[in-house]
Amino acid sequence: MDIKFPVQKSEIYRSADNLQQNGTAVPSSGVEQKEDRLDTISFWIILALAFLLPVFFLPIGHLSILFSKSALLSMSVFVAAILWFFARLKKGEFVVPKTFLFAFSAIILLVFLIASFLSPVSRVSLIGLGSETGTFFSLGISFALFFFASLFFRSKKRILLLYTALAGAFLVVALFQIVRLFGGTAAIPLDFFANPTSNLLGGWN
Protein backbone atom coordinates (compact mmCIF):
# COMPACT_ATOMS: atom_id res chain seq x y z
CA MET A 1 0.00 0.00 0.00
CA ASP A 2 1.24 3.49 -0.86
CA ILE A 3 0.77 6.96 0.57
CA LYS A 4 -0.14 9.59 -2.03
CA PHE A 5 0.59 13.28 -1.54
CA PRO A 6 -1.34 15.54 -3.94
CA VAL A 7 0.46 18.56 -5.36
CA GLN A 8 -0.89 21.69 -6.98
CA LYS A 9 -1.61 21.13 -10.67
CA SER A 10 -1.29 23.73 -13.35
CA GLU A 11 -4.37 25.23 -15.00
CA ILE A 12 -4.11 23.03 -18.06
CA TYR A 13 -4.21 19.86 -15.94
CA ARG A 14 -7.11 21.12 -13.81
CA SER A 15 -9.08 21.89 -16.99
CA ALA A 16 -8.40 18.41 -18.31
CA ASP A 17 -9.59 16.87 -15.04
CA ASN A 18 -12.82 18.90 -15.19
CA LEU A 19 -13.46 17.73 -18.74
CA GLN A 20 -12.95 14.12 -17.73
CA GLN A 21 -15.33 14.47 -14.79
CA ASN A 22 -17.99 15.92 -17.12
CA GLY A 23 -17.63 12.97 -19.45
CA THR A 24 -15.91 14.93 -22.19
CA ALA A 25 -13.24 13.06 -24.08
CA VAL A 26 -9.84 14.62 -23.68
CA PRO A 27 -7.44 14.03 -26.55
CA SER A 28 -4.09 12.58 -25.66
CA SER A 29 -1.36 15.17 -25.71
CA GLY A 30 2.35 15.04 -26.09
CA VAL A 31 2.71 16.22 -22.49
CA GLU A 32 0.94 13.15 -21.14
CA GLN A 33 3.01 10.82 -23.30
CA LYS A 34 6.15 12.55 -22.14
CA GLU A 35 5.13 11.98 -18.52
CA ASP A 36 4.90 8.24 -19.04
CA ARG A 37 8.17 8.30 -20.92
CA LEU A 38 9.93 10.01 -18.01
CA ASP A 39 8.92 7.23 -15.65
CA THR A 40 10.00 4.62 -18.18
CA ILE A 41 13.38 6.27 -18.68
CA SER A 42 13.90 6.41 -14.90
CA PHE A 43 13.11 2.71 -14.66
CA TRP A 44 15.57 1.80 -17.43
CA ILE A 45 18.28 3.92 -15.83
CA ILE A 46 17.93 2.02 -12.55
CA LEU A 47 17.77 -1.30 -14.40
CA ALA A 48 20.89 -0.48 -16.43
CA LEU A 49 22.61 0.53 -13.21
CA ALA A 50 21.95 -2.95 -11.78
CA PHE A 51 23.93 -4.45 -14.67
CA LEU A 52 26.64 -1.82 -15.07
CA LEU A 53 27.57 -1.15 -11.45
CA PRO A 54 29.35 -4.49 -10.78
CA VAL A 55 31.36 -4.33 -14.04
CA PHE A 56 31.86 -0.60 -14.60
CA PHE A 57 35.22 1.15 -14.32
CA LEU A 58 36.98 4.06 -16.00
CA PRO A 59 40.38 3.16 -17.47
CA ILE A 60 42.05 6.25 -16.02
CA GLY A 61 45.16 5.69 -13.96
CA HIS A 62 44.48 8.08 -11.07
CA LEU A 63 40.84 7.01 -10.57
CA SER A 64 40.13 3.92 -8.52
CA ILE A 65 37.49 1.38 -9.51
CA LEU A 66 35.46 2.20 -6.40
CA PHE A 67 35.47 5.88 -7.27
CA SER A 68 34.28 5.10 -10.82
CA LYS A 69 31.43 2.98 -9.48
CA SER A 70 30.51 5.66 -6.94
CA ALA A 71 30.38 8.30 -9.69
CA LEU A 72 28.21 6.07 -11.89
CA LEU A 73 25.85 5.32 -9.01
CA SER A 74 25.51 8.96 -7.97
CA MET A 75 24.92 10.31 -11.48
CA SER A 76 22.46 7.56 -12.40
CA VAL A 77 20.37 8.02 -9.26
CA PHE A 78 20.51 11.81 -9.64
CA VAL A 79 19.26 11.72 -13.24
CA ALA A 80 16.56 9.17 -12.39
CA ALA A 81 15.45 11.34 -9.46
CA ILE A 82 15.14 14.44 -11.64
CA LEU A 83 13.08 12.61 -14.27
CA TRP A 84 10.87 11.02 -11.63
CA PHE A 85 10.35 14.38 -9.89
CA PHE A 86 9.16 16.10 -13.09
CA ALA A 87 6.90 13.15 -13.87
CA ARG A 88 5.30 13.49 -10.43
CA LEU A 89 4.74 17.22 -10.92
CA LYS A 90 2.91 16.52 -14.17
CA LYS A 91 0.81 13.77 -12.66
CA GLY A 92 -0.03 15.86 -9.62
CA GLU A 93 0.84 13.47 -6.79
CA PHE A 94 3.77 11.88 -5.01
CA VAL A 95 3.59 8.19 -4.14
CA VAL A 96 5.55 6.94 -1.12
CA PRO A 97 5.70 3.23 -0.19
CA LYS A 98 3.82 2.63 3.07
CA THR A 99 6.16 0.14 4.75
CA PHE A 100 7.93 0.05 8.09
CA LEU A 101 11.21 -0.67 6.30
CA PHE A 102 10.95 2.57 4.33
CA ALA A 103 10.02 4.53 7.46
CA PHE A 104 12.94 3.12 9.46
CA SER A 105 15.31 3.82 6.56
CA ALA A 106 14.17 7.45 6.49
CA ILE A 107 14.74 7.71 10.25
CA ILE A 108 18.26 6.29 9.90
CA LEU A 109 18.97 8.81 7.13
CA LEU A 110 17.76 11.65 9.36
CA VAL A 111 19.94 10.44 12.24
CA PHE A 112 22.96 10.36 9.91
CA LEU A 113 22.21 13.92 8.81
CA ILE A 114 22.02 15.19 12.40
CA ALA A 115 25.18 13.31 13.36
CA SER A 116 27.01 14.76 10.35
CA PHE A 117 26.17 18.33 11.35
CA LEU A 118 27.24 17.64 14.95
CA SER A 119 30.53 16.10 13.86
CA PRO A 120 33.72 18.17 14.34
CA VAL A 121 34.47 17.55 10.65
CA SER A 122 30.96 18.00 9.30
CA ARG A 123 32.05 18.40 5.68
CA VAL A 124 33.82 15.04 5.72
CA SER A 125 30.85 13.42 7.45
CA LEU A 126 28.43 14.87 4.90
CA ILE A 127 30.16 14.18 1.59
CA GLY A 128 33.69 12.95 2.32
CA LEU A 129 35.86 12.72 -0.78
CA GLY A 130 33.10 11.29 -2.95
CA SER A 131 33.76 7.55 -2.82
CA GLU A 132 33.39 6.72 0.89
CA THR A 133 30.51 4.51 2.00
CA GLY A 134 30.03 5.89 5.51
CA THR A 135 29.00 9.46 4.71
CA PHE A 136 25.56 11.02 4.63
CA PHE A 137 25.86 11.53 0.87
CA SER A 138 26.53 7.85 0.18
CA LEU A 139 23.74 6.82 2.54
CA GLY A 140 21.37 9.25 0.82
CA ILE A 141 22.22 7.76 -2.58
CA SER A 142 21.59 4.27 -1.20
CA PHE A 143 18.27 5.41 0.28
CA ALA A 144 17.20 6.94 -3.04
CA LEU A 145 18.14 3.73 -4.85
CA PHE A 146 16.11 1.73 -2.34
CA PHE A 147 13.19 4.12 -2.84
CA PHE A 148 13.25 3.79 -6.63
CA ALA A 149 13.62 0.02 -6.46
CA SER A 150 10.49 -0.20 -4.30
CA LEU A 151 8.59 1.91 -6.85
CA PHE A 152 9.81 0.49 -10.15
CA PHE A 153 10.23 -3.23 -9.46
CA ARG A 154 6.76 -4.33 -8.47
CA SER A 155 5.54 -6.45 -11.35
CA LYS A 156 6.85 -9.94 -12.09
CA LYS A 157 8.07 -8.79 -15.50
CA ARG A 158 10.22 -6.01 -14.09
CA ILE A 159 11.56 -8.20 -11.29
CA LEU A 160 12.54 -10.78 -13.91
CA LEU A 161 14.33 -8.04 -15.86
CA LEU A 162 16.21 -7.10 -12.71
CA TYR A 163 17.26 -10.70 -12.09
CA THR A 164 18.36 -10.96 -15.72
CA ALA A 165 20.49 -7.82 -15.43
CA LEU A 166 22.11 -9.07 -12.22
CA ALA A 167 22.73 -12.49 -13.76
CA GLY A 168 24.32 -10.84 -16.82
CA ALA A 169 26.62 -8.81 -14.58
CA PHE A 170 27.54 -11.96 -12.64
CA LEU A 171 28.47 -13.74 -15.86
CA VAL A 172 30.73 -10.86 -16.93
CA VAL A 173 32.47 -10.81 -13.54
CA ALA A 174 32.83 -14.61 -13.58
CA LEU A 175 34.29 -14.54 -17.11
CA PHE A 176 36.74 -11.84 -16.05
CA GLN A 177 37.90 -13.89 -13.08
CA ILE A 178 38.25 -17.03 -15.21
CA VAL A 179 40.45 -15.15 -17.69
CA ARG A 180 42.54 -13.79 -14.79
CA LEU A 181 42.79 -17.25 -13.24
CA PHE A 182 44.11 -19.02 -16.32
CA GLY A 183 45.78 -16.12 -18.12
CA GLY A 184 47.38 -14.41 -15.14
CA THR A 185 47.76 -10.67 -14.64
CA ALA A 186 49.15 -10.28 -18.18
CA ALA A 187 45.83 -11.41 -19.69
CA ILE A 188 44.30 -7.97 -19.05
CA PRO A 189 47.07 -5.35 -19.43
CA LEU A 190 45.61 -2.59 -17.29
CA ASP A 191 47.17 -1.01 -14.22
CA PHE A 192 43.94 -1.55 -12.29
CA PHE A 193 44.38 -5.31 -12.51
CA ALA A 194 48.13 -5.63 -11.98
CA ASN A 195 47.55 -7.15 -8.55
CA PRO A 196 46.57 -10.87 -8.56
CA THR A 197 43.64 -10.12 -6.24
CA SER A 198 42.25 -7.29 -8.41
CA ASN A 199 38.69 -7.69 -9.69
CA LEU A 200 35.88 -5.80 -11.40
CA LEU A 201 34.03 -5.29 -8.14
CA GLY A 202 36.83 -3.12 -6.78
CA GLY A 203 37.42 -5.21 -3.66
CA TRP A 204 36.54 -8.44 -1.92
CA ASN A 205 34.96 -6.89 1.17
Please characterize this protein's 3D structure.
- A two-stranded antiparallel sheet has the order 1-2.
- It is 65% helix and 5% strand.
- It has 205 residues and is mostly helical.
- It has helices at 11-21, 30-55, 65-91, 100-118, 122-126, 136-152, 156-183; strands at residues 2-6, 93-97.
- The longest helix is centred in the last third of the chain and has 28 residues, at 156-183.
- The radius of gyration is 21 Å and the shape is globular.
- The two termini are 36 Å apart.
- It has 7 helices and 2 strands, in the order βαααβαααα.
User: How many β-strand runs?
Assistant: 2
Shape call: globular
pLDDT < 50 runs, ≥5 residues: 5-16, 24-35
Mean pLDDT: 77
How much of the residues is beta strand, in percent?
Answer: under 5%
Report helical residue fraction: 55-70%
Compute the CA-based radius of gyration.
21 Å
Query: Major sheet: order of its strands?
Result: 1-2
Sheet of most strands: 2 strands, antiparallel
The total count of helices amounts to 7
- Distance between the amino and carboxyl termini: 36 Å
Q: Helices and strands: which structural class? A: mainly alpha
Oligomer: single chain
H/E element string? Answer: EHHHEHHHH
